[in-house]
Amino acid sequence: MLPVIIICLIILGIEFITGIIANGLMIIVNCSEWIRSRKLTCCDMILTSLGISRFFLQWTIFINGILVALSPAMNGQCDIRRNLYIFWMYLNILSLWFATWLSVFYCVKIANFSQPVFLWLKRRISGLVPLLLMGSLLVSLVTCLPLVNFIERKYINNSTNNLSENTRVDCRHNMNLSPDLVILYMLGYSFPFFIFVVPTVLLITSLWRHTKRMGKNTNISRDTITEAHVSVIKGLIAFIFFYISYFVAIVLFLLQIFAHSSLSFMWFCIVVMAAYPSWHSVILILGNPKMKKAAMRALNHAKCRLRDEAS
Fold first, then answer.
1. Between these two residues, 160 and 260, which has the higher pLDDT value?
2. For the CA atoms of 100, 103, 104, 109, what is the dihedral angle to 10 degrees?
3. What proportion of the chain, given as a percentage, has pLDDT over 70?
4. 3-state helix, strand, coil in the chain (%, to 5)
């Protein structure tokens, strides 16, 4: 058991550092540009919002992993675990909404369709992005309210029962959430994810139609459009992969199916969850020329510093 926990802690540490650096880079680069020019493009606004939400999400996953490791010593500290779960759930839904709007933005800007609704979105998307981001904050909060109510009620009930028998409150018992909470959580996740799938399908359809229309014509215009489609689709497919694995890990973790028989399974779930906000952000950086350039510049600067210190 101990070697498994140590390996999971090492992997979790790598994912944590990667996520903090990747999301921190998105935040720093875009905020620096905003300070310098007093404006941000719609894409940069979404990436900044996504980076901030995932930056804090990465911290909550990491702290939750530490608390799981310290769970035997956490009796009587259930308030910390409960508040962390609530904040974690809010960030989960919020970051998904931001990623959804990023896919919608890419689809509207890159895909080519003649439907009136799509053309209307193409003209108005720049003005809608700030409203969508602000609306996501409110929608995520409203979505989390039933979850907060459920945890609060369960926590109070369990605390009252435990106090009648023992003055120490067992955090594992209180945080052993029922399937009802998981169902509520899945409903909060399903709507933005379904919206996310739509632009992904539209982009793939647009790429297929464009390739079919151009045929064997290999001019520069075709290469540019096809490259833009393929680059965005790769990022969206990677997001779907990370998101599904992340969501399954969350469901298993919240249900705590093997919580009492296998602590290593809980650690596995935490490692899988930590991969989503870190590695997908790395993929976004590699797919964004400005972010990739900033990352390479920072990497070269770090190499120079290490070389100077070594000499």
1. 260
2. 160
3. 73
4. 85, 0, 15
